[in-house]
Amino acid sequence: MKVFITGHTSGIGLATFELLKEQGYNVIGGSRRTGFDISDERLYSQIFDCDVFINNSYHKTGQLNILEAVYNEWQNKSKTIINIGSWGKDNQQGRPLTRLNYNVAKKALETYSFWIAENDLVCRSMVYNPGFVDTPLARKGCEDWPKEKIEEVLKRIMDPKECAKTIIFMIQNKYKFREITHHA
Ligand SMILES: NC(=O)c1ccc[n+]([C@@H]2O[C@H](COP(=O)([O-])OP(=O)(O)OC[C@H]3O[C@@H](n4cnc5c(N)ncnc54)[C@H](OP(=O)(O)O)[C@@H]3O)[C@@H](O)[C@H]2O)c1
Q1: Can you spell out the DSSP letters for 5-59?
Q2: What whole-number distance in Å separates Cα of residue 171 and Cα of residue 111?
Q3: Which of 3, 89, 139, 173 could be stapled to 106 by a disulfide with Cβ–Cβ 3.0 to 4.6 Å?
């Protein structure tokens, strides 16, 4: 089975890329440092002949664009798409306005994936919403939080390897999940 994953050089994507390789999958990664930027639509065709697409890298418009492009090719075909959303998109109280782009982008991604799940009986599109995961992105995101809040959250922060196990479970289970959410 051939898998394409974006953002395979750090955090959740790296852990998933490594676990997939360990399990014998033919896995291709795409990150900016390896020449694949999800904001560049000309690169998307590299994904089309794969069986599974893990839409992991966040970009305010790119994550939805890449899903649209891949789904246009994969309609009614026996393929699997895992979109990495976020538990945090539904929790806005006390969050700065500057974070709104992120929530809106993840909501749009989820809405698109749910449409596929409800209307396409062959192609599986699912959302995995991680909670708070120990990656460079998460560490940077809480830099300006009060010290007590950081300490409290760090007690229950997830290991990216746990996210990788969940993503691979979603691929291997033959049933369709609308979404799986880990609570932060
Ligand atoms: N960490 C958390 O707590 C958390 C919680 C909920 C959801 N998430 C979601 O999980 C996903 C992965 O996050 P992470 O925490 O694992 O992040 P991370 O450790 O910062 O890794 C991000 C990965 O994406 C790649 N990337 C960034 N911009 C890209 C672009 N424009 N095109 C292609 N690749 C790009 C990076 O490589 P390059 O820099 O080389 O491009 C890197 O491999 C994101 O969708 C994020 O929203 C994370």
Answers
A1: EESTTSHHHHHHHHHHHHTT-EEEEE-GGGT--TT-GGGGGGGTT-SEEEE-S--
A2: 20
A3: 89
84 lines ligand 1 (CB under 6 A): yes
> Distance from the CA of 160 to the center of ligand 1, in angstroms?
11
As given in the structure block, the two tokens for residue 82 are: 């895992």
What CATH number should be reported for the domain whose range is 2-133+159-181? Answer: 3.40.50.720
- Does any ligand 1 atom lie closer than 6 A to the CB of residue 10? yes
How confident is the model over 106-154, as pLDDT tens digits? 999 999 999 999 999 999 999 999 999 999 999 888 888 888 888 888 8
Q: Where are the domains of the chain?
A: 2-133+159-181
Which token pair is 87? 């538990």
